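Retry 2 of 3 after timeout on previous attempt. Resubmitting structure tokens to design endpoint.
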């Protein structure tokens, strides 16, 4: 019985160690690939978009319609 528990603990330690080593290598390789891709394929700077002011009446109309739809849905759910 003691030998079986010892083998189980040994297997658990090796399994967890293997997973830890694999995930550590995965993190470092992903970071390295990110640096390589960033060096050879830099992102173009994003150009700011011109901000358009939204019409206030359209936003209020959309909110009124949304409130009406939500109220109808709650009323239908409760009945």
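Retry 2 succeeded. Sequence:
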């Amino acid at each position: 019985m003691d030998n079986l528990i010892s083998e189980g603990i040994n297997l658990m330690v090796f399994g967890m160690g293997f997973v830890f080593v694999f995930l550590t290598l995965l993190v470092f390789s992903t970071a390295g690939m990110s640096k390589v891709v960033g060096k050879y394929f830099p992102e173009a700077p994003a150009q700011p978009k011109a901000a358009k002011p939204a019409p206030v009446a359209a936003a209020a109309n959309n909110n009124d319609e949304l409130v009406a739809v939500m109220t109808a849905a709650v009323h239908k759910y409760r009945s």
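Attempt log closed. The mean pLDDT is 86.
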